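For the sake of transparency, this paper describes our internal protein records without simplification. Because each token names a local backbone shape, the row as a whole describes the fold. One such record is reproduced below, unchanged from the form in which we store it:
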Amino acid sequence: MVQYTSDPTAEMPPEARELLKRYRPGLEDEKRLDDLIAYLETTTADAWCVDVVRTEGARTQNCVFGHIFDWGQSRGDGSDKDGQAAWEWFEDCWATVYRAYPVNDGEVTYYCQPTARERSIAFLRDLRSGAVASTHESMSWEFYGEDIDALREGEKQ
């Protein structure tokens, strides 16, 4: 198991963090994330699992993406299409599986809450507050090679 000790964007200089705000998800996406967080807060710790998206059997458990999928279904007509759309929205706007799974599974040392539920909700709250970078913020930081001057130039385009 890989232990992540910090968010890859946590070391960003303050100016870079400010410049990257233009890549943050919009108000509607923030409202959807608020709704998702509220949904996750209604779940119980024993409804969560690690190492897989969803368990099989009499008592189904989900990781954060399994819960996102269920949340999507609950907002639509209950179809897999709605669950998949929620999953894709979350990855596009907020965080990919490559960032969310390690948090869920307890592999990120700075999310040290005792359950996958608590760790994942804390991560989503940090995404919402801007304490950690969203998908497009972190991708833009990588695209500009962690170069503030290049990031400033990109702002002009």
Observations:
- Residues 26-156 form one domain.
- The mean pLDDT is 85.
- Residues 73 and 83 are 5 Å apart (CA to CA).
- The first helix runs from residue 14 to 20.
